[in-house]
Structure formats: structure tokens, C-alpha cells
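Exercise 7b. C-alpha cells:
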């Protein structure tokens, strides 16, 4: 949307991005932290871009912010009507019968090893049927904030992710480089908060 010259298409894509952010907040509110960290540098650069007119800047910002704020407000009202609190995203209604409000964030450097293994390094399991690999079953009931068994494998098990290491700063625009650094930093912080 930022690089498009057609105003209608550009504003439509900004509106779709704002709606997508609101919908993401509805299903995974904590993941919005890393998404906002990723897109914030681009949004700020758009507003500071001298080659755009003031009308274009305001229109682009409003086309993104209006559906994002409206969607987020709708989610807050829904939370209030259903759970009695704007910021209760169903924490008390967990099927696991565990009230997540009891979780507390505490720094534990020993958890970093588990974080790195489970989110980045853990390989998929070998299977006897095509495609001969399967997701590994993990019991993470002793990792603090996670009280369930789930299926997982590390990000580095996905060959497409390896392309991150091939990216060089000289091939990226400055804003894209800042977006990547900001998004990756906040994603790792969010992973740590989820684990500890």
C-alpha cells in the first residue's frame, strides 16, 4: 500500500490492513504487540514523508486507523458484554480450568534454553508415512505460563525462514531494515513473556 500510486487502491489496502490488525487482536491480542512493533516504523515514515501531500498523509493514516480502532473498540465492547471487563479476553473461561490471571512474569535465565529449543531449534519428528515428517508433540506443562501439551517444531525447521540470514542491509531500504529489527526484537520479547 505504501508504494502504490493509485490513491483508491492504496487507501483500500490501508483499510484492509487496519481491519486485519483488529481481527488479529480479536483472536490473539498479545501477538498484536509484535505486529504493531513491525508496522510502526513504516507508519511513522509514511507520516514524515515529505514527497506526500498533507491530505494524502491524513487520508492514508485515517484509512488504516479507522477500521483498526473501530474493530478494537468492538472487541472491547464484546468483552465487556460477555465477560464484564473490557480487557478480559476470556481468561476466566479457559477450557483448561486454569485462571491465567495467576501467571506472573519473572526473569529466569534458565528458561532461555527452553525458549530457544522449542521456538527455534526443535526439529520435526520422522514419520513412516508421506511426507515422512510430522510435528513433534511437546509437554510444556512445567514452563511457567504454559499449561498444556501441544504440537510444535522450531522456526528453523522451515526452509523459507533460512532466507532471513541471506538478507543484507544493502538490499533493503532503511525503513525495511528498521521494521525487521523492531519486529524481531518485540517477537523475541513476546516469546520470552509467554514462556516465563
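Sequence design result:
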Amino acid at each position: 500500500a505504501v508504494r502504490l500510486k493509485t490513491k483508491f487502491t492504496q487507501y483500500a489496502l490501508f483499510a484492509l490492513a487496519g481491519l486485519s490488525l483488529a481481527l488479529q487482536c480479536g483472536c490473539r491480542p498479545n501477538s498484536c504487540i509484535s505486529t504493531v512493533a513491525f508496522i510502526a516504523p513504516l507508519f511513522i515514515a509514511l507520516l514524515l514523508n515529505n514527497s506526500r501531500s498533507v491530505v494524502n498523509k491524513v487520508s492514508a493514516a485515517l484509512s488504516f486507523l479507522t477500521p483498526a480502532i473501530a474493530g478494537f473498540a468492538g472487541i472491547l465492547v464484546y468483552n465487556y458484554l460477555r465477560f464484564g471487563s473490557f480487557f478480559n479476553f476470556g481468561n476466566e473461561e479457559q477450557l483448561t480450568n486454569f485462571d491465567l490471571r495467576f501467571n506472573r512474569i519473572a526473569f529466569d535465565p534458565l528458561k532461555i534454553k527452553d525458549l530457544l529449543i522449542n521456538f527455534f531449534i526443535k526439529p520435526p519428528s520422522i514419520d513412516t508415512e508421506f511426507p515422512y515428517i510430522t510435528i513433534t508433540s511437546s509437554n510444556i506443562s512445567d514452563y511457567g505460563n504454559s499449561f498444556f501439551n501441544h504440537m510444535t517444531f522450531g522456526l528453523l525447521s522451515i526452509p523459507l525462514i533460512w532466507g532471513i540470514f541471506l538478507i543484507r542491509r544493502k538490499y533493503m531500504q532503511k525503513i525495511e531494515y528498521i521494521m525487521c529489527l523492531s519486529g524481531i526484537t518485540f517477537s523475541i520479547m513476546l516469546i520470552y513473556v509467554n514462556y516465563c
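Instructor comment: The chain has a mean pLDDT of 78. The chain has two domains: 1-101, 103-196.
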